[in-house]
Structures are given as C-alpha cells and as structure tokens.
Amino acid sequence: MKLLPFAKSSDLFRFLMMSVVGVALVVKLFIVYRVLYPNPQHVHDVMFGFSGYVHSLLESGAYRSCLGLPFEAIDPNTCVYTTRMPALPIMLVTLSAFVGTNMATVAAAKAVVASIGVAGALIIWTRRSTPSFATVLLFVFALLGPQVLKHAACLDYEEGLLVELMAIQAMMLAAILSSDNQDKRSIHSVFYLALVLCAGLSYLTKTTMLPFLVGIATFSVYKLRFRPLTALAVVFIAGLPVIGWGTFSWETTGRWTSSSSWNGENLLRGFNSESYQIYPDISVDRIFSAKEGILDNGQIVPMGHWISRPPFHNEWEWNDYYVKFAKQWILENPMDALHFSGMKAWAMFIDPKRVPRRVSAELEKEPYGGSAESLGVAWMIIARVLFFAAIVHLLIEARLTRRFDALWLLALIAAYSIPYVIVFASQRHAIPMLVFVIISLAASLARMSSFVAKKN
After folding, report:
1. 250-271 pLDDT, tens per residue?
2. 303 in helix, strand or coil?
3. Which is higher by pLDDT, 90 or 363?
4. How would DSSP label each residue in 198-254?
5. N or C: which end of the chain has fewer CB within 10 A?
6. CA dihedral defined by 434, 439, 442, 447, rounded to 10 degrees?
7. What is the arithmetic mean of pLDDT over 309-331?
8. Is residue 447 predicted with pLDDT exceeding 60?
C-alpha cells in the first residue's frame, strides 16, 4: 500500500529537497525579524561601509559614498567610489523600491528571491540526476546549518548574497556534469550562460570572487569548445563585470582596477605584527582601535600602532598607504608571513570554532554563545569532515571515470579559498565555500552511483 503519492523514491527525494528550501526560507525569515532586525531600521543604515552608497543611490541614483568614509579625508567634501562592490547596495535599493526601506522587510524580500533562485537551480539539477537518500541528507545539512542560515539572512555584509549564489552555482555545475555523463550535448547552452552570470554577480558582490569567476569562465569555455559562439558569449558575460567595474573606477577615481580601494587596508589586516599576534582570538579590525588585546590564554598583546592615521586626499592614496606597509612587513618577516598564511589556511579549512573568537579585544562574553555556539561548532566539525571527504571523493571520481570534471571542482574550491588564505580568513568567509563543497559532494555521489550502475 502506498503511503505517499510518489511513483518512485527519487520523486520523494526531489520533493524532500524542495521542502528543505522552504524550511530554510521560514527559518531565515524568523532570524531576520526576531534576531537580526527586530527593531525598525532604515535600509541606508546597513553596516560595513555600504551605508553611504545606499544613501547616495536612494537620493541621487549615483553610486558613490560621501558619508562615513573609512578614512579621514583632507577635503571634507571627498567622496569614494570603489571602496565596496556594487551588487549588495544596488540590490538593497532595488528591493526597497518594491517593499519599502525597512531593513527587515528588504532582508525578507531578498530571502524570498534567493530561495526562488535556489529552488530553480535545484529543479534543473534534479531533473538531470537521480537523487538518493544520501543526496537528501547532504542537501539538508548544507542548507540548514546554523551558520548558513544566519549569514544568508544577514544583509550587512557580502556573504548574505554569496551563500545562496554559491549554492546555486554548485547545483548548476552538478546539472552540467550530470548531463555530460548522459549526453555531452544534452545540457542547453543557456545553463552555461546562467552559471557565468551567477559567477559575475558573485564578483560584483565581493572582489575575492574574481578568481572563482575566472575559474567558472575557463571551465565553461573548455566544456563549450565545440560550441564556439556560446563560448564567446561566456567570455563576454564573464568579462563584462570586470571591464565595467574597471571602467567605472577609471572614470570616477582615475585608476583602473578589478579590485576595491578597501583592499589595501585589508591587506594590512593580514600582514602586520599585531594581527599576527592576536589572530584568531581577536578580530584583526581591532588593530585600528585597541591599545592592547587580551588573548584567550590571558596573554596581553600591546597594540595601538595603527590607531593614528594620517588624512588622505582620496581613496587610492589611502589604499596605497597600507599596501606599502603590508608589503614591507612581508619582506622583513617572510617566515612570519608564511606562518600567518598557514594560520589563515587552518581557519579556512580546519578550525571548527568561530574565527575570530571575539570581536572585542577584551575578554568579555560574545553574542551567540552557550548552546548556539555549541550547535555551531558541532555543525562545523561535521562540515569540515565532509569537506575533506569531498576532496577525496572527487579525486576518486576523477581517477575512476578518467574525466577532468571532478578536478575542475577542486580548482574552483581553490580559486574561492586562495584570496582568504593570502589576506585573512574568518568562519564567515568559509561558509559559502562549505555550502558549495557539500552540495558538490552530493552531486559527485550521484554521478559515481550512476557510473558504477552503467559499468555493472
């Protein structure tokens, strides 16, 4: 007797996976309204250097920030144009035109739109692959992790967009590779274009996604080498955001760049003696505000060298000032710089605890402690195990199938991770990568199951 109206178990698994997207949306809405933005907050009060851009877009439609500059300007009328990438501010303003300017409402609207995107990618993937019980479990784990839900619900920083964008790209790649296992021409060219479009949007969200965009574009061109017109379209779509951003920077600041002017200060955060001593116990942001830091073991680290900052004429003078000191520290302390990069790699790939442990330089209780912290650590431990299981499984898949597909995925994981290992890594930075890897592992298991079944 049938208990459920499903012809096959795979149909049930598809239904369960789609249900997970709905459950994740409900939980994110709860986090938005009850945890992150319980009180009325205007959308232009977004944090982490985006506020001025949102304010300007709402007032004049111009992408610039003239309020709350991240440095002291010599001219009080100075504006900046390239300290932050444009995707997040533009999305906030666009959604606010439909749902109003309350931050919670905008975050809720973003959660709904992102969930529709995830659901669409899921349909594309599962129509070209037969999900198993293991696929469902991994998908549940990837989308319902406490850190995943928290960061995906937040719109104060880029990971609020990247978590779902990386999930969508993982499923689009899974659809492409699953179709290749059946019929090399069975995947429509538009899916490659959609994949590269998502990668381009990821880059416009955060500059660290540039290597990932290059990796996605290279993968797509390789797979489309017998479809030259589509391959050319891929190159155009991948190059458009980079060239467009560089041109915008040239016209507004006089410097062509594929990066942002905040990355000079970020580079210093990753390469100086104070950060080296306090990481990962204390946020490296504290080098600009604290005179001393207390590590978890009670050791007191003298700080304060970077608190005093000279005024600057413009954003690129500010950028270059810190780049100079970061490079100088690397040249004078090559072994410390290498060891520091090893610490960042540990935080990116292995450490199950929150990095940084504390935002404050003082020994004080941080939010999300207690049971929430324990749940997060438990999820991270399993996620870290799955990360290395995915690496091993992808290598096995490459060897057994004698195809490069799995190696492409490994290259994309490296492309995402390298900027954080070089500069500095926090747990927040690792979450989109872990979502990508766990979904890729689920897809790899399905491909291997199909491969073994065909051989037998």
Report:
1. 999 999 999 999 999 999 999 9
2. coil
3. 90
4. HHHHHHHH-GGGHHHHHHHHHHHHHHTTT-HHHHHHHHHHHHHHHHHHHHHHHHHHS
5. N
6. -120
7. 97
8. yes
CA distance 194 to 203: 14
What's the pLDDT tens digit per position in 197-212? 999 999 999 999 999 9
Distance CA 199, CA 173 (A): 12
Rounded to whole angstroms, the Cα distance separating 114 from 152 reads 9
Q: What amino acid is encoded at 415 in this protein?
A: A
| pLDDT one-digit tens code per residue, 270-303 | 999 999 999 999 999 999 999 999 999 999 999 9
What element of type H or E holds 292?
strand 292-294
Q: What is the dihedral of CA 252, 254, 259, 264, to 10 degrees?
A: -110
Residue 431 to residue 220: CA distance in whole angstroms: 24
Between the alpha carbon of residue 315 and those of residues 102, 260, 272, 424, the distances in Å are 30, 10, 21, 21
Query: How many CB atoms are located within 10 Å of the residue 11 CB?
Result: 14
The rounded percent of the chain whose pLDDT value lies above 90 is 84
CB within 8 Å of 306: residues ≥ 6 apart? 268, 272, 274, 287, 288
Cβ proximity of 106 and 37 under 8 Å: no
Amino acid occupying residue 303: M
Residue 200 Cα to chain centre, angstroms = 13
Q: SS3 for 86?
A: coil
Q: Which residue has the tokens 């949306």?
A: 25
